[in-house]
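sry for the spam today, last one i promise. struct tokens for design, 136 residues
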């Protein structure tokens, strides 16, 4: 299940309501949100990106680097990537060290220092296999 623009916008608005920030969209308006989500969809449907962690990482990269909102792009990118994994049945391991690592890696994603593939690898390590996929 891929995320849609109303969902991403709602995530963004909730983040800004809870944590503060400058509301609104970047220059492209709501079309910018739709465009970055189309990038994810194109990679998932037409470029052969079928790895759950790769798709989650694509959300993070596309939203963080797309600067579709006036503020909160990295926060929205991270929450959307994690929400996608949650919708796919993955539970984020708890712990302050993971939270710190996720924040740090999102800054590096936005700066172009961490690529989608590297983020996907990191997510697969911290999440591990789904409980339902483990042998009984």
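last one done:
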């Amino acid at each position: 299940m891929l995320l849609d623009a109303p969902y991403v916008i709602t995530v963004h608005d909730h983040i800004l309501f809870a944590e503060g920030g400058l509301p609104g969209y970047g220059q492209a308006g709501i079309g910018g949100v739709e465009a970055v989500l189309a990038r994810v969809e194109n990679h998932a449907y037409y470029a052969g990106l079928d790895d759950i962690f790769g798709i989650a990482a694509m959300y993070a990269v596309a939203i963080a680097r797309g600067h579709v909102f006036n503020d909160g792009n990295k926060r929205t990118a991270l929450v959307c990537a994690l929400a996608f994994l949650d919708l796919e049945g993955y539970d984020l391991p708890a712990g302050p060290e993971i939270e710190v690592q996720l924040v740090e890696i999102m800054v590096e994603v936005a700066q172009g220092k961490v690529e989608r593939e590297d983020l996907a690898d990191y997510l697969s390590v911290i999440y591990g296999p789904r409980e339902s996929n483990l042998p009984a």
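Residues 5-130 form a domain with the Four Helix Bundle (Hemerythrin (Met), subunit A) fold (CATH 1.20.120.1870). ok im logging off now
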